[in-house]
Structure formats: structure tokens, C-alpha cells
Amino acid sequence: MTRLQTALNELDQALAAITLDTPVLARADEITRLDEARVQCHDHPARLQRHQEKLQTLQARVKALAAELGWPAEDEAAVAHRLLPPAWRERTAELIRRHQALQHAVEKARHERDAQAQNLSQWQAQLQSLASEGIDPALSDLLEQARRLGRSRCPVGCPDP
User: Which stretches within the chain are classed as H helix?
Assistant: First the structure.
């Protein structure tokens, strides 16, 4: 126990020897904010480099697209001036999407039409094969007899079967 008491006394003496810098402690909030800002800006140069590379890539793409449109090589402001206002670009994009949807619907309808035409030709071929086999003459005679029998029993004004 005495050993613990001795250690406690030493710690109390060490604590008493510490002097607090009150002006620094008064600015603790500001120091904390500055440290947080330092952490946020830690990789700022690398992020700035990535954004500059992305900007250069986008500028090259704009120049390539402008060249495809036959526009002369111009600066960014001149190209921006040539572009349609945002409302027109949105409307154009919507029309393009609608046109693509209609193209897809037409292609789907054509495919469906072709499938139905193929199905119809198969049915016609089957029907043709049935017609070419011919009808048994006895069956044809029976059908004619049934029609005559039906007409004889029908009062005046009955439709012909």
C-alpha cells in the first residue's frame, strides 16, 4: 500500500509541476477548427491536379465535338456562345430519347409482324396441304343432302346455309 501511496504522491507532484498556457487554452476552439481545415485540405494539391486533368480531358472532347460539327477551332467562350440555351438542349435531349423509344417500338413491331407473317405462312401451308388432299366425295354428298334437308324444313325467308 505504501508503494501505491508513493506513486500517487509522485503523480500529484508531477501534476502540480505542469503549467497551463491559458491563452492557448482560450483559443482551443479556433485551434480545433484550424486542425479540421488542415485535414480537409490535406490532399488539396492532388485533388486539384485530378480536377485539372479532368478539365483538360473535357476541353479536348469539346474541341473534338466542335470539329465534328464543322466549327472552327475557338476558345471556350466562343463555343459556349454557339451552344443552344439549356432549355433547348433539354428539349432536344427529350426529343432524341422519344425518337429512340419510337425506333425501338417500330423495330419491335416489325419483328412481331415478321413473326406473325411466318406463322400465317405456316398455317397457309398446312391449309394448302389439307385442301390438296381433297374431300371424300361421299362426305361432300352427305353435306349437300344435309343442306337440302335443312332448306326443306325451314319456313320461307330462312337464310341459305
Answer: 2-17, 22-26, 28-40, 44-68, 76-82, 86-133, 137-153
